[in-house]
Design a protein that fits this description.
Radius of gyration: 30 Å
Distance between the termini: 60 Å
Largest sheet: 2 strands, antiparallel
Structural class: mainly alpha
Number of helices: 5
Strand content: 5-15%
Length: about 110
């Protein structure tokens, strides 16, 4: 497991499987290693290595970039209409008034969702 060598995915998968088997076995490390013909130092070294790999992969840095057009749209206020039946309609500026009238008429006639 010298650092600088390319990782062998098959070997990593093998050790992950062994460590999971040990966790489920209820055996001590020494007894598990004896049963599977592996040395305890190898077991401990691989367990530590895999924990470090998992910790290193736990968080991935990201950079959020906001598109100027998206920022403008997000800052535009919306109108919220709550009808007597509990239905809620959110309307953004520039809406089509004829379509909104049709939608409201349908909501007034129908049962609440």
């Amino acid at each position: 497991m010298a650092h600088g060598k390319p990782r062998d995915p098959r070997k990593e998968q093998h050790w992950r499987r062994l460590i999971q088997l040990w966790k489920n076995s209820g055996l001590t490390v020494r007894a598990f290693c004896a049963r599977h013909h592996i040395t305890p130092p190898s077991f401990y070294a691989w367990r530590r290595e895999l924990q470090q790999r998992d910790a290193a992969n736990a968080f991935v840095p990201v950079q959020v970039e906001i598109d100027d057009q998206l920022a403008r749209v997000a800052s535009i206020p919306t109108i919220e209409v709550v009808l007597a039946g509990g239905q809620c309609v959110r309307v953004s500026p520039g809406f089509d008034s004829a379509t909104l009238r049709q939608l409201l008429a349908v909501l007034r006639e129908g049962e609440p969702c």
